[in-house]
Amino acid sequence: MALDTKGRIFDIQKFSVHDGPGIRTIVFLKGCVLRCRWCCNPESQEYKIQQMSKNGKIKTVGRDVTVEEVLNEVEKDRIYFRRSGGGITLSGGESMCQPDFAVALLEEAHARGINTAIETTACVPWETVARFLPHLDTVLMDIKHMDSLKHKEFTTQPNELILENVKKIAHSGVKLIVRVPVIPTFNDTEQEIEAIARYAVSIGVKEMHLLPYHPFGVDKYKGLNREYSLHHIKTPTDEHMQILLQSALNTGIKAQIGG
Fold it and tell me: Of 20, 23, 121, 241, which sees the most CB atoms within 10 A?
């Protein structure tokens, strides 16, 4: 039974306004195929349940839940969904790494009249992506770089599968927003942002969000006894983000800074 389907999450965040339309409740799933150097949720990368030091205390990261348990929590925010056009957003990690649980959660949310969205890189076989699409109102899709070698250098994975999947999602009819994490030393030049925007336009994408880098996850790396390799970079200035925004707008896409 779908309500009994189990998955592994590490957080449920309420009252988000940056991860899909309206006020959202975000469910963060464990596990990811990428290892982005700037990842602000390093505790999401491993599927296994972990111990992380936080403020001098040891915190267990990850718990197993059923679809029903998650939706019972999400339902508490239904009044905010109705007023704002919001709903549930799946994030991570990479939700598509737990397809049975994530699809069952989205399907049941839809059955209850709750708007659905997902934050994803879709770096999984297309057959997996296709399982999600009938149960999604919005796909927030990361495109991090057009150069596959540089993409692999900073994330451990090439980008061909991601680019092929985003093209198919764009042609599926589901609302698709391309999101670009803007990371100094990786993709923060006008040429790199313009290349992503031009690709998005070429496959029919109409909306793009530029998300400036912030070092929010640095302390988490310490808590997991992991090295943070981008400690030398800083958040892009507002002036620089405006320049990058203009390079995207020049391609004809509707673009903005932030989600």
Answer: 20
Residue type, 201: V
The per-residue pLDDT for range 196-240, each reduced to its tens digit, is 999 999 999 999 999 999 998 899 999 999 999 998 999 999 999
Residue matched to tokens 């999604």: 136
Which residues does residue 178 pair with via DSSP β-bridges, in sequence order? 141, 208
Contact present, 135 and 105 (Cβ < 8 Å) = no
pTM of the full structure: 0.95
Q: Do 65 and 91 touch, CB atoms closer than 8 A?
A: no
Distances (CA, A) of 244 to 40, 85, 176, 182, 201: 22, 30, 21, 9, 16
What is the residue type of 83?
R
**CB burial of residue 237 (10 Å; 0-12, 13-18, 19+):** exposed
